[in-house]
Amino acid sequence: MKKVDFNLNTLDLFTKIIDVRTPDEYNHDSIPNSINMPVLSNNEREQVGKIYKQNIFEARKLGAQIIAKNISMFIKKDTLKKEDKILIYCWRGGLRSLSLYLILKSIGFNVTLLDKGYKSYRKFILSFFNKEILNYKFNILGGLTGSGKTYFLNKLANYKNVLNLEFLANHKGSVLGDIPNKPQPTQKNFESKIWFELSKFKKSDIIWVESESRKIGKLSLPNNLFSQMKIGKLFTLNVPLNERVKFIMKDYKYFVKQPNFLKEKIYQLKKFLKKDEYLSMIELINLKKINELVKCLLSFHYDKLYSNRNFYKKEKRKIELKSINLNSFNNLLVQLKIRKI
């Protein structure tokens, strides 16, 4: 029986990684680029689990019947090729992954089991953020809210290594950061996504990242990642207020159509605002003066909040930009002394 532990090179050794756990387990977190071929559905696993508490033998009989049926369906779909190098895993390397392994091996597929399953992978991720992350170095792109940090980072990715944490978190990093119809991943899955992106870079390379706080929406940055970011070189974008308002209006245009949702978000800031500031913002929403609302949000709250942040090193280099567009990005490259390809 072929088994491997999860390590830095595991993903490169296989052409297909099969997660046989339930869809719920898979969606909670999984090995990057793995495919879900559940040998038990969510309901089937629950059903077997209930019987297991009363009669282990009967539970195993039922489990075997269901697993055999589901594996038969996978084979009929003909999604696996003989030349595939296949890694199979379940929760902890038990009967679920072993069942698929034995059947595929008997057919003639090139299969390997992940020893101790997902738990082995998760142990690796925790170790990475405890130790390996301390070898990475970061440049931080900062600036007041609406300065186009994410916009410029995305373009910078054509020239330098970039880690877009807000993209991985499905969140824009503020109270208004929720993205419609895009729920945030779980904390574990967020950490998996970060590791997978970092695994594409050399440890010796400097990685550009946005000046995030410790939390992005409901998710938290791993402690040692945040520590490494705090000691990185800080480059601060300085963009005029009116340009920032224009950019936010384009970037958050979906809020204009949802005034009640917008009010809920402003209410979350109520404890940070003076009473008259809060009431004036609600009035601006009622009057559909969203431009003015954005200007108030920046002036009354976000600009003050950013100025009081001391997460990152005091030394910083200011990047003066008149607008947020392609011309400004070219100007940014010049100021950063990055040569265009």
Describe the structure.
- The structure is a single chain.
- The protein is α/β, with parallel strands linked by helices and 341 residues long.
- The protein has two domains: 3-126, Oxidized Rhodanese, domain 1, CATH 3.40.250.10; 131-335, Rossmann fold (3-Layer(aba) Sandwich).
- Helix content is 49%, strand content 14%.
- It has 15 helices and twelve strands.
- It has helices at 10-13, 23-28, 42-54, 56-77, 95-107, 117-130, 149-156, 165-169, 187-198, 223-230, 241-251, 259-268, 275-286, 290-308, 326-335, and strands at residues 3-4, 16-19, 35-36, 85-89, 110-114, 137-143, 161-163, 206-210, 215-216, 219-220, 233-238, 316-320.
- The strands form three sheets. A five-stranded parallel β-sheet has the order 1-5-4-2-3. A five-stranded parallel β-sheet has the order 7-8-6-11-12, with helices on both faces. It has a two-stranded antiparallel ribbon with strand order 9-10.
- α5 (95-107) links the parallel β4 (85-89) and β5.
- α6 (117-130) packs across α9 and α12 packs antiparallel against α13 (275-286).
- The longest helix is centred in the first third of the chain and has 22 residues, at 56-77.
- The radius of gyration is 25 Å and the shape is elongated.
CATH class of the largest domain: Alpha Beta
**For the report, how would you describe the main beta sheet?**
5 strands, parallel
Query: Low-confidence stretches at least 5 residues in length (pLDDT < 50)?
Result: none
Judging by the overall fold, what is the CATH architecture of the largest domain? Answer: 3-Layer(aba) Sandwich
Kindly report how far apart the N and C termini lie: 49 Å
Kindly state the mean pLDDT as a whole number? 92
What would you call the shape?
Answer: elongated
At the third CATH level, what is the topology name of the largest domain?
Rossmann fold
Write down the domain tally: 2
What is the ordering of alpha helices and beta strands? EHEHEHHEHEHEHEHHEEEHEHHHHEH
| Percentage of residues in strands | 5-15%
